[in-house]
Design brief:
Layout lengths: L2 H11 L8 H22 L6 E7 L2 E3 L4 E9 L5 E9 L5 E3 L7 E3 L4 E8 L5 E13 L6 E2 L11 E5 L8 H12 L12 E7 L11 H7 L3 E6 L5 E7 L7 E2 L2 E2 H18 L3 E7 L3 E5 L7 H10 L10 H11 L5 E5 L4 H5 L6 H7 L1 E8 L1 H8 L5 H26 L3 E6 L3 H14 L4
Parallel strand pairs: 2-10, 13-16, 13-18, 18-19, 19-20
Antiparallel strand pairs: 1-3, 3-7, 4-6, 4-8, 5-7, 8-9, 8-10, 11-12, 14-15, 16-17
C-alpha cells in the first residue's frame, strides 16, 4: 500500500466521535480501505507485461557526460502508472530526467523514454546495477512490485582516461618536426638514417665527410643524418601497490596513464611502433603497435579499466615479458614509483638483463606532500617527526635514482602535473641524439 491509504484511513478516523460504536467504525473503515486497496492492486498493470531496454553511449571520457536511455514498453491492455528507479554504481554519477517519485504513464502498447545523464567520477567500467519498477493502481492506494520484473537490461559504460596532457601535444609535435627536418629550422641530431649531402662548413664533424662524393664534386661534402624512424617504444605501467598512492588529486596510476598516452601519441606521429604492457603479479593489459591509425584509441580503451592491485609488483615477470615480446632493441619506459622497497628488491636485481638489450627510462611522479613536509618550518614537535620522515623518503629516492643511473637508466622524476611533458621531452631528446 502507498501513503495515500494511510491518509484515507486517517481522514476516516476523524469521524469516529460521531460513531455510536467507535470500534465498529474502526473495523468498517479499515475494511473499506483494504477493499479499495485490493481493487486498486488488481487494476494495476501487471509487471510481467513490461519490458525494458537501453540504448545510448557506450563510452565517455572522465569528466564528460554520457546519456543512457531506458525504454519501458507496456504490452498489457491496461495503462501502466509506474514509478521507476534506475540504479547505477555511485561513481557513475547518474542523474535521471524523471525523478523516482514521479509517476510515468504508459498507454497499452506504448513506450516510455526515460533518459539518464551520467557524469562519472572514476575511470573504468561503470555498470547498471538494478532497475525497480513500481506499478500503481488507478487510485494510487496500492502497487505491484516484483523483484526481477522487468529484468534489468544490462549496460556498462566505459569511462576513458581524461588525457589532460593532450594540450602539450602541438608543442611536442612542433619540436618533433624540427628534429625530423621537415621545417626550415632543422635540428642537427646525431641520427643514423642518411638524409642528404651538403657542403662542408666550419664546425662540422669531420667524421661526417663523404670522401667519395667529395672526390666526384671536387668539393668537401658531408653527410647529414636524421633521427631514426620506425623505432620501437614499450610503455610499461606498474599496476602494483605503489600505483594506488594518491599523488596530488588522483592515483599515481592515472598520472602514469596520462603520460603514457601523450608519449604514445607523439611516438606514433614520429613513425615509431608503440607497445604497451600493464602488469603487477600478472599481465593486466597488452597493446601492440600494429595498425598505427587507431593505436591511440586501442590503447585508451585497454587502459580504461586498469585498477591498482594491492600487491608487490613482480618485476621479474615484467622484465621477462618485455624480453620475450621485444627482440629488437627498443626504448622501454617503465612508469612506477621511486621507492627503495619496491625497486630495490624488485627491479634492480633484474635490471641488468633489460638494460643489456634495451634503452631503459624509469618515469615516476613524486609526491608534493613530501617536499612540503621537508621544507615547512615545524610548528609543533609532531611536525619535526613528519619532516624527518619526509627527508628520509627523499633521501631514499635519491639513492634509488643513483642506483638506476649506474645501470645506464635514464630517470625522470617530476611532479604529477609535469610528468607527461617531461617524459615526452626525454623521448624527443633521446631521438634527437640518436640514442633510441
Amino acid at each position: 500500500m502507498t501513503w495515500r491509504a494511510g491518509v484515507l484511513l486517517l481522514v476516516g478516523a476523524l469521524s469516529l466521535p460521531v460513531w455510536p460504536a467507535p470500534l465498529v467504525g474502526v473495523a468498517l473503515m479499515t475494511g473499506a480501505v483494504l477493499l479499495l486497496c485490493a481493487v486498486d492492486w488488481a487494476l494495476a498493470a501487471p509487471l510481467h507485461a513490461v519490458t525494458a531496454t537501453r540504448d545510448g553511449d557506450r563510452s565517455v571520457r572522465l569528466g564528460g557526460t554520457a546519456t543512457i536511455t531506458l525504454r519501458l514498453t507496456n504490452t498489457a491492455s491496461r495503462t501502466l502508472r509506474a514509478q521507476v528507479r534506475d540504479a547505477w554504481v555511485p561513481s557513475a554519477g547518474a542523474v535521471g530526467d524523471v525523478p523516482p517519485q514521479r509517476v510515468t504513464r504508459v498507454a497499452p502498447g506504448g513506450t516510455a523514454v526515460l533518459p539518464s545523464r551520467l557524469t562519472p567520477t572514476r575511470r573504468g567500467d561503470r555498470p547498471a546495477v538494478a532497475l525497480a519498477v513500481r506499478s500503481l493502481g488507478p487510485l494510487g492506494l496500492a502497487f505491484r512490485q516484483w523483484a526481477g520484473r522487468p529484468a534489468t537490461p544490462p549496460w556498462t559504460l566505459r569511462v576513458l582516461p581524461r588525457f589532460d596532457s593532450r594540450r602539450h601535444l602541438p608543442e611536442k609535435l612542433s619540436r618533433l618536426r624540427v628534429i625530423d627536418g621537415t621545417q626550415v629550422t632543422r635540428g642537427r641530431g646525431q641520427g643514423t638514417e642518411f638524409d642528404t649531402l651538403r657542403e662542408y662548413v666550419v664546425g662540422d664533424d669531420v667524421r661526417s665527410i663523404d670522401w667519395r662524393a667529395s672526390a666526384r664534386r671536387s668539393d668537401v661534402l658531408v653527410r647529414t643524418w636524421r633521427p631514426e624512424r620506425d623505432r620501437r617504444l614499450v610503455c610499461v605501467l606498474d599496476t602494483g601497490r605503489t600505483s594506488a598512492v594518491r599523488v596530488g588529486d588522483e592515483p599515481r596510476l592515472d598520472t602514469s596513464i596520462d603520460a603514457a598516452l601523450l608519449l604514445t601519441a607523439l611516438a606514433a606521429r614520429a613513425g615509431d611502433r608503440v607497445d604497451l604492457l600493464a602488469a603487477d603479479i600478472a599481465v593486466r593489459a597488452t597493446v601492440t603497435g600494429n595498425g598505427r591509425s587507431n593505436l591511440l584509441n586501442r590503447l585508451v580503451t585497454a587502459v580504461a579499466s586498469l585498477q591498482p592491485a594491492l600487491v608487490e609488483t613482480d618485476f621479474g615477470l615484467v622484465v621477462g615479458e618485455v624480453l620475450r615480446r621485444e627482440r629488437q632493441r627498443s626504448l622501454v619506459v617503465i612508469f612506477t614509483a621511486l621507492e627503495a622497497g619496491a625497486l630495490g628488491a624488485g627491479l634492480l636485481p633484474v635490471l641488468p638483463r633489460l638494460a643489456a638489450r634495451h634503452r631503459v627510462v624509469v618515469a615516476a611522479a613524486h609526491d608534493p606532500v613530501l617536499t612540503s613536509l621537508a621544507t615547512a618550518a615545524p610548528a609543533r614537535p609532531a611536525d619535526a617527526y613528519a619532516a624527518a620522515a619526509a627527508w628520509r623518503a627523499l633521501d631514499e629516492r635519491t639513492r634509488v635514482r643513483a642506483a638506476l643511473a649506474r645501470h645506464g637508466v635514464t630517470v625522470v622524476d617530476a611532479p604529477a602535473d609535469r610528468l607527461a611533458p617531461v617524459v615526452a621531452d626525454t623521448y624527443l631528446r633521446l631521438k634527437a641524439q640518436g640514442r633510441l
